[in-house]
Design a protein that fits this description.
Distance between the termini: 6 Å
Shape: globular
Largest sheet: 8 strands, parallel
CATH class of the largest domain: Alpha Beta
Helix content: 40-55%
Strand content: 5-15%
CATH architecture of the largest domain: Alpha-Beta Barrel
Structural class: alpha/beta
Number of strands: 12
CATH superfamily of the largest domain: Glycosidases
Strand order of the largest sheet: 9-6-3-2-1-12-11-10
Low-confidence stretches: none
């Protein structure tokens, strides 16, 4: 089945096809249909591949055009500034944006007063070692981008552009509270020739925003002024880059909204080195955020991320403390810049975090525990919300089933950060709690479940991770609730086709087949369902097809599709717990329209009309009969 014509033009550019697909999504009760792609994975135009994707390029606008009319949102990854030695966006800064997302080509135009020479831009694209692949060249572009931006900055200072310079001054004033710290850190990386502050030799420079005495306050203030004077140009350059990316981001979001699409931001659980240095007085000294031992890691995961001190988040009267005010400003900025909302990564880290002692493993026997759920812990008990009476003594502290019950008041205390910071921030910029997308996959403790229920928050259902032997598993089609975001996979998972290849010819494959046959073929006989289950268990393409049908047939009001699953790419974007150039580097091919059509013909890409037709039929004979006209329209474009 195909709906690409002989010229390989994409059906996503066919207005009639888009309207029919949109109608089918409405029939199935889908309010949001989001396309997942981190900005660095965006494609480039022919001959304009710098080595890193951006949502601000002309190629990105073309992609937005391509997706618009069907997709309502684009789920981006974290946008913070990353380190030269680590491409992971989940260790980026919380306020500063990543200068790698600046579209250099725009700086060569009249709009930006040609502050970057086209020769420099062209040299970068021509020397990109990955220019003919759909992979980023992180180390290459990290250095090349900075050099190009320095050229642009020098020309900006000389340029006759009073209006643009006035906007720059306004930007610095409006963002001074975080921009001063982040840019000063940049100056200190030059001073110490190292961008990792724990290795700096000066104890004063390590603690400039963390004075302990009145004497230190005066000393540190003098040091800050000294650095501002000595490295004025470095600080101004840092601010300039943040201004440029802010301007470009704004225009991109405006363009997307003109096409009926919104951007959804991604808030990681981590704080960067830069943030840790700037706000270290807000963090719990000697403790880090991590993950307890599990099937994947016998010793747990030592993330090394600082933990916000509960006593700095909230004052004793329940009002926001210094840390709480900082977090609220962060979320306000994110909601304001991204009207589609914010995806909160690792929701358990916001509600019921697992913490461990610095220098030790995140294991119970080495002092680790849940920050708010360890009333028996010699140190963490002072922060406990749950009491010893709420615990199951037969279950270890690192297990999800540890807490048996909570009162309404306790649930409110667990949810204080969500209510008073995240929801409040959304409301203050005119959004509601439905603009909050909660990544609640994996560990799901009772406090997390209780808070999600109390505030009616929308979590995620990852159908690739269904446990087929559990009939009531929440990721199974028949159990997925309307107020949720469903997907076959995220940026951390294998494409669904790869998963299917590893699942067929196994007990899991057969059990998945039985569940899918039961959930998606309601009008079939028991004998027919058994035949379907057996076929699914032996045919990877048929299993993949049925998982897509399950996604759209389920009752979830919101759907997400990662770009590998849409385009039929048989590659992994990120393998959690591993490092190296292969992670975080996969991009949408520059010739994605052609790739989509070719993969569609080979049964690899997502055939939306066909899958939506099957999803409507999977709701049962009566439902399909009521929507026969929509089915016929879908058949006309298949």
């Amino acid at each position: 089945m195909t709906y690409c014509d002989e010229q390989k033009t994409s059906p996503f550019l066919n207005v009639e096809a888009k309207n029919i697909i949109k109608e089918a999504l409405n029939v199935l009760g889908k309010k949001h249909f989001a396309f997942i792609s981190h900005a660095n994975s965006f494609p480039a135009e022919n001959g304009k591949n710098t080595g890193f994707g951006t949502s601000n390029s002309n190629a990105a606008k073309n992609l937005i055009d391509y997706l618009s009319g069907i997709f309502t949102d684009i789920q981006l990854g974290p946008s913070g500034k990353t380190k030269s030695i680590d491409a992971s966006p989940y260790t980026g800064t919380i306020f500063s944006n990543n200068p790698l997302f600046i579209d250099l080509e725009q700086l060569t135009t009249d709009e930006w007063h040609n502050i970057l020479s086209y020769e420099t831009y062209n040299k970068i694209t021509q020397n990109n070692p990955n220019k003919d692949t759909n992979r980023t060249a992180y180390s290459y572009i990290f250095n090349a981008q900075e050099e190009a931006l320095k050229e642009a900055f020098e020309n900006f200072k000389k340029a006759d552009c009073p209006q643009l310079k006035s906007k720059f001054e306004t930007y610095k004033q409006e963002n001074q509270f975080w921009l001063e710290k982040d840019s000063l850190y940049e100056a200190l990386t030059v001073e110490h020739k190292n961008d990792y502050w724990p290795m700096w030799k000066s104890e004063t420079d390590k603690s400039l925003y963390n004075p302990q005495t009145e004497e230190q306050k005066a000393e540190y203030a003098n040091r800050i002024n000294e650095l501002k004077s000595k490295y004025a140009d470095v600080i101004e350059f840092y601010s300039f880059c943040q201004f440029v990316i802010s301007e470009q981001n704004t225009k991109t979001r405006e363009y997307a909204q003109s096409k009926g699409m919104k951007m959804i931001a991604d808030r990681q659980v981590a704080f960067s080195d830069r943030d840790n240095w700037a706000y270290q007085s807000y963090f719990l000294k000697g403790w880090y955020l991590g993950c307890p031992p599990d099937y994947f890691s016998k010793d747990g995961q030592m993330w090394g991320f600082p933990v916000m001190d509960p006593e700095k988040l909230f004052n004793k009267d329940g009002s926001l403390g210094e840390g709480g005010l900082l977090m609220k400003e962060l979320y306000k900025k994110m909601f304001k810049e991204n009207p589609g909302g914010v995806r909160i990564d690792h929701m358990v880290g916001l509600i019921d975090p697992w913490v461990y002692v610095a220098g030790k493993k995140p294991k119970i026997e080495e002092g680790a525990g849940r920050l708010y759920s360890s009333p028996e812990h010699p140190v963490l008990s002072k922060y406990a919300i749950a009491t010893t009476d709420d615990l199951n003594d037969e279950v270890e502290a690192d297990k999800e089933e540890r807490i048996l019950k909570l009162t309404k008041e306790q649930i409110k205390r667990y949810g204080a950060l969500v209510e008073k910071i995240v929801i409040a921030a959304a409301q203050e910029v005119g959004l509601d709690k439905d603009s909050i997308v909660c990544e609640d996959l994996g560990t799901l403790t009772y406090p997390v479940v209780s808070v999600m229920k109390e505030y009616d928050l929308q979590g995620m259902k990852l159908i690739q991770f269904v446990v087929p032997e559990k009939p009531e598993h929440p990721y199974r089609c028949k159990n997925i609730t309307p107020r949720s975001w469903a997907m076959v996979g995220t940026h951390d998972n294998e494409p669904i086709a790869m998963w299917a290849d590893s699942t067929v010819f196994s007990e899991a494959g057969y059990l998945n087949g039985k569940n899918l046959a039961e959930d998606l073929y309601p009008d079939a006989t028991d004998e027919e369902r058994e035949e379907i289950a057996v076929r699914i268990s032996k045919d990877a393409k048929f299993l993949t097809q049925n998982k897509f049908v399950e996604l759209f047939a389920c009752k979830a009001e919101n759907i997400q599709i990662f770009f590998t699953d849409l385009f039929g790419l048989y590659e992994v974007y990120n393998r959690p717990g591993t490092s190296g150039d292969s992670n975080w580097s996969l991009r949408i091919p520059d010739n994605y329209e052609e790739v989509y059509c070719n993969n569609l013909k080979e049964g690899k890409a997502l055939n939306l009309p066909y899958i939506l037709k099957l999803a409507i039929e999977a709701r049962g004979h009566e439902f399909a009969a009521d929507h026969r006209e929509t089915i016929m329209k879908l058949e006309s474009i298949m």
